[in-house]
Design brief:
This protein has one domain: Nonspecific Lipid-transfer Protein, Chain A (2-Layer Sandwich), CATH 3.30.1050. The chain is 49% helix and 27% strand. It contains seven helices and five strands; from the N terminus they run H-H-E-E-E-H-E-H-H-E-H-H. A five-stranded mixed sheet has the order 3-2-1-4-5. The chain is globular, with a radius of gyration of 13 Å. The N and C termini lie close together (12 Å).
């Protein structure tokens, strides 16, 4: 399954909404967020409408790129894949430049470290579940 594809985005949303830890750690976060993967001359994106531990909607492709978003994080495709393979810390990746916050407040993101880690953990499950 391709990262940030329609099937990936749908599976990710379902897993987010079934994850007990994210439901708790995501409380207080009420902002849409877009993740953008840069690969050669192509941009892939997934947009998530996250509200208080629930993902109300997910979009991918052109719709994700056009959707209103309070936050956007971009990275090369290899950086996203590496983050998911290692279940790395997304805030560390932002501070070290592996991921780039292109829209939104880094200060606000730091208040939601646990939910950010949950989103990476959950995203890595999407990939793992498709390899079985």
């Amino acid at each position: 399954m391709d990262l940030f594809s329609k099937d990936w985005a749908e599976a990710y949303m379902k897993l987010i909404n079934s994850d007990v830890e994210y439901k708790e750690n995501g409380k207080g976060w009420v902002n849409p967020i877009r993740f953008v993967s840069l690969h050669e001359h192509e941009k892939k994106a997934v947009w998530l409408d996250l509200k208080n531990g629930v993902c109300e909607q997910s979009l991918c492709g052109k719709a994700a790129l056009a959707a209103n978003s309070s936050y956007e994080i971009q990275a090369e495709n290899k950086a996203w894949e590496s983050l998911l393979e290692t279940k790395g810390d997304p805030l560390v990746a932002l501070f070290t430049g592996k991921l780039k916050l292109t829209k939104g407040s880094l200060f606000t993101l730091t208040r939601f470290t646990a939910s950010a880690k949950d989103l990476v953990r959950i995203a890595s499950i999407v990939e793992i579940s498709e390899m079985d």
